[in-house]
Nucleoporin 205 (Macaca fascicularis), 311 residues
Amino acid sequence: PVIGTHVSNFKRQCLGLLSRFGGSDRLRQFKFQDDNVEGDKVSKKDEIELAMQQICANVMEYCQSLMLQSSPTFQHAVCLFTPSLSETVNRDGPRQDTQAPVVPYWRLPGLGIIVYLLKQSANDFFSYYDSHRQSVSKLQNVDQLPPDEIKELCQSVMPAGVDKISTAQKYVLARRRLVKVINNRAKLLSLCSFIIETCLFILWRHLEYYLLHCMPTDSQDSLFASRTLFKSRRLQDSFASETNLDFRSGLAIVSQHDLDQLQADAINAFGESLQKKLLDIEGLYSKVRSRYSFIQALVRRIRGLLRISRN
């Protein structure tokens, strides 16, 4: 049906937003006007960064909702991402500064974009956490900050004419700026922790299906092969039924090699250092927020899946 096609295209375009806005490194793509003064740039950068993380959080929440609504069991999971980690492998390689190609909206993105977003969000979390902690410390000791730093803080609030105001007014502006930074970083920390947890959930559900329940289309067992073809058609139909869509790298064909490569890449991508970082994040954030986090449980489940041999 036509309406189904429109919904399908909407879903795909939503998923495509992850490769456009995922991670703080995407800020480099935004060019600020040269005539903007420095203070204005700093304030604008904060606003853009918050907006980008909010977009990512919204898309991840949408993905999670789609999976929970459409996948009552793991055996009949509706997968939103293909079993490919090429996005994270490409971006983590020796040329990290190279912009990864944006996936066209008519093709499903690979699971690599989720792993990449997970890593990027973990790095972002620690950056925001340090900035938040430093700003709180500065706010508590504004009177002891050097004049140059007071001036810099003031210029973020009042781009011109800082030299003409009194010292007392400068301290007022500096405090105002620090409060704004603290609030901004608190929001970013909340968004980051949500994105991390949702990425882990989506990664776990996909790995659970691909590594335990997905029967490759090149399986020797004709009964299982026919079941897989039927299942992959259901997965395909749940997303779109347009004949001009490219499913060759999507869910319609998943070979044994694809699954073996997924497990090998996932073991490398989801290593000890990333796991430790994620557990540290849960520990840090639980100190400032009473909300219970599932990061540790999800990390443990993913680690268990990757230890299982498919052979």
The chain is about 65% helix and 0% strand. The chain has one domain: 1-89+107-214+253-309. The two ends are 41 Å apart (CA to CA). The longest helix spans residues 167-213.
